[in-house]
Design a protein that fits this description.
heterodimer; A: 503 residues; alpha+beta; five-stranded mixed β-sheet; two-stranded antiparallel ribbon; 9 strands; 68% helix; B: 192 residues; alpha/beta; 5 helices
Chain lengths: 503, 192
């Protein structure tokens, strides 16, 4: 987990990532918007250039000196200077669309067109509207720098020409050299609304893309968490397998010990004795068996040997059953890993008895008495092997709790009862070490164990709860305090239906 | 590199604007205008006050002068000494008939008498060399001289127009000579 933890982002990292992503999204949308506006201005600048050329050719196509006709200077000016004004920003739009320099050149060109038109129309007041229209178009860039630059160009033009040749700007000869301020003030008045509009739009865009960045970051973190959870899940599954197999293997070991002891102490010894006897009387076996006294001894001896072999066979069968359970544990953990299990319908009392039997040797070894009380409950349809794991875990925990307690009473009571028509309950009550109030709330947490010093890992109960939730059941614990035993209440639906929202 | 081109482009725009402003406000040479009604002219003043307008019938800049004169005519309709307006319309010696009958001729006709001036002879007698030049004579003495547009082809309310109205109404004017903006009537050394 420490490796994973190093990959987990801190809150500051997340904020920085969101901030960076928002900036990136804003840059991207602004760039795309500017490209779109650039292409619009490309055609507007081209149209203004064509219009200037056409108008000069219509209004002042030629000039005269006496009888000689010349192309009017306005025509050349309209074509050549028009190409200069529009050409550069058009070139920039084609070469670097969306760039700051491109839109600044567009802003300047549009302002120069305004100045030129005002000049050529002798300062007609109607032509001044071109300035307002141009600024409104330029505001579509949502960049205050473009508006400022265009306003500055128009302001400087008004100021200079207002001083030198006011007729070309205002249409009348004015006395005041400050009249340009009035014009600039009106432009700035409009700029205020355009700036406000730009900033508002940028703010809204920021909020929108900030939200998007947050959602993206959330999705990314979720993906990371799912990945980590999967990794943790794999570890948990492995832990679960080891834990459950370990439980059974304890019983297998006990059975194997019992088997070995019986083989050695009874069967092998008797067979050796029989072999020695028969070897001793090998030369006269008919005489040996004709002795009535010996026959009376030998027949029960063989009968006893047969009984011993029968016991051993039962033990082997028990061992086989436990090993089968190991297979089932592994298979059910594989089911858990793939999030699928096989449900079957069975008698819960039988499953509880099987689980008790599975641990009976270890109960015997630990001198723990176990009682089972049962009511008549409906058959249950669920994953049987997962349920056995749960019960074995609970019983094993109860046994450990008793082992850890110094009390004289060493017993476990298992009770099966009906909660409702569709739910059954299983109570596992022990006389073990008990659980403190403080630990009651943490008992099901992953990694929490009161027996860490005695080999506990805190995986068993957590795993039990997880598996039980999959089966639609629930588990709770109760204890009257330390040293006064504990009771686990398990509830399970008769039909395995996982409630919505459950893990 | 882009910044350098950008800077050069800005400089060229400034130069272009300066050039067009200079071109529009550069007046034609108008020295040599007579102070008194010339004896050699065939024109007769025919009254106390006479306003002479010299035009090239195909000069696009002169349209602005005629529009200014229309305003003046309306503004001075109630003047006591309202001048007789005579337009001398230039035409080359070799011009075909109807060469001078343009929209400018028509506009001038609405203002007063229009006289064809072949080869600009009458203009030469008065010392005039630019289309749009106006001279106002009062009892044979020139009291106003120059153009009444603010620039080449520009309308508006330039001081020249105000001064001319003042002259017609008999007011004292500080300035009675103004620059003229228009096409040249002669090819000899006249700036376009």
């Amino acid at each position: 987990m420490s490796t994973n933890a190093s990959h987990v982002l801190s809150e500051r990292d997340v904020q920085t990532e969101i901030s960076d992503r928002t900036s990136l999204l804003m840059e991207d949308i602004n760039f795309r918007n500017c490209c779109k506006i650039d292409s619009g201005f490309f055609w507007l600048l081209f149209a203004q250039w064509v219009l200037a050329g056409v108008l000069t050719m219509i209004v002042t196509p030629t000039t005269w000196i006496g009888a000689t006709e010349h192309v009017h200077m306005h025509v050349w000016f309209g074509i050549i200077f028009g190409a200069l004004v529009s050409g550069f920003p058009m070139f920039m739009i084609l070469k670097c669309p969306g760039h700051l320099q491109t839109r600044l050149s567009v802003g300047i060109a549009q302002a120069v067109w305004t100045c030129l038109l005002i000049h050529l129309t002798g300062g007609r007041i109607e032509t001044h509207f071109h300035a307002f229209a141009s600024l409104a178009f330029l505001a579509a860039y949502r960049d205050w720098r473009v508006l400022i630059l265009a306003t500055a160009v128009i302001g400087i033009d008004h100021f200079v020409r207002g001083l030198l040749w006011p007729m070309s700007v205002y249409g009348v000869a004015v006395d005041s050299q400050y009249r340009f301020l009035e014009h600039v003030a009106w432009v700035l008045f409009m700029d205020i609304f355009l700036f406000w509009s730009c900033f508002r739009h940028q703010k809204e865009a920021f909020e929108k893309y900030h939200r998007r960045a947050v959602l993206e970051e959330q999705a990314k973190l979720n993906e990371q968490m799912i990945k980590f959870s999967r990794e943790a899940g794999k570890a948990e599954i492995a832990t679960g397998v080891l834990h459950n197999v370990g439980n059974v293997m304890n019983s297998v070991n006990v059975s194997a010990d019992v088997l070995k002891d019986r083989m050695r102490s009874k069967v092998q010894r008797r067979l050796q004795a029989t072999h020695s006897l028969l070897e001793e009387h090998q030369q006269n076996l008919p005489g040996f068996f004709s002795d009535q006294q010996r026959a009376e001894y030998f027949v029960p001896f063989i009968g006893q040997l047969s009984e011993d072999v029968g016991d051993l066979l039962a033990e082997v069968e028990s061992l086989q059953e436990k090993l089968n359970h190991v297979n089932n544990v592994v298979a059910s953990q594989q089911d858990l890993a793939t999030m699928s299990g096989v449900d079957s319908t069975f008698d819960m009392a039988e499953v509880i008895e099987s689980s008790i039997v599975m641990l009976s040797d270890s109960f015997l070894k630990s001198r723990v008495e176990i009682d089972f009380e049962k009511e008549i409950v409906p058959f249950v349809t669920t994953d049987k092997h997962k349920l056995i794991q749960i019960l074995v875990n609970l019983l094993r925990n109860a046994k450990h709790a008793i082992e850890d307690n110094d009390g004289t009473e060493r017993s476990i009571l298992v009770r099966l009862y009906k909660v409702s028509e569709c739910r059954i309950g299983i109570e596992v009550r022990d006389t073990g070490v008990g659980i403190s109030d403080e630990n009651l709330g943490k008992i099901f947490q992953h990694g929490f164990s009161t027996r860490k010093d005695r080999g506990g890992h805190g995986f068993g109960l957590h795993h039990t709860v997880c598996v039980l939730q999959e089966l639609g059941g629930e588990l709770r614990a109760d204890s009257e305090g330390v040293g006064r035993g504990a009771t686990f209440f398990l509830e399970l639906p008769v039909e395995n239906r996982v409630p919505e929202g459950s893990a | 590199m882009n910044k350098l081109i950008f800077a050069i482009w800005c400089c060229m725009l400034v130069a272009g604007m300066v050039w067009i402003s200079d071109y529009s406000t550069r007046p034609a040479k108008s020295d040599g205008v007579l102070d008194l009604w010339p004896e050699e002219t065939t024109l007769r003043c025919g009254g106390d006050s006479c306003l002479l307008l010299f035009v090239h019938p195909r000069c696009p800049c002169t349209r602005a002068t005629l529009r200014q004169l229309e305003k003046l005519s309306a503004d001075t309709a109630d003047a006591i000494r309202r001048p007789r307006i005579v337009t001398l319309c230039y035409c080359p010696d070799t011009a075909e008939e109807g060469w001078a009958k343009t929209d400018i001729w028509e506009s001038a006709s609405a203002l007063g008498e229009v006289i064809l001036d072949p080869g600009g002879e009458e203009a030469g007698r008065f010392g005039i060399s630019t289309s749009g030049h106006i001279i106002l004579f009062d009892h044979g003495v020139r009291i106003f001289d120059g153009g009444i547009t603010a620039g080449r082809g520009h309308e508006g309310e330039p001081p020249a127009l105000t001064a001319l109205i003042g002259c017609i109404r008999g007011r004292e004017n500080k300035q009675c000579a103004f620059p003229v903006y228009g096409c040249g009537l002669f090819e000899r050394g006249i700036e376009q």
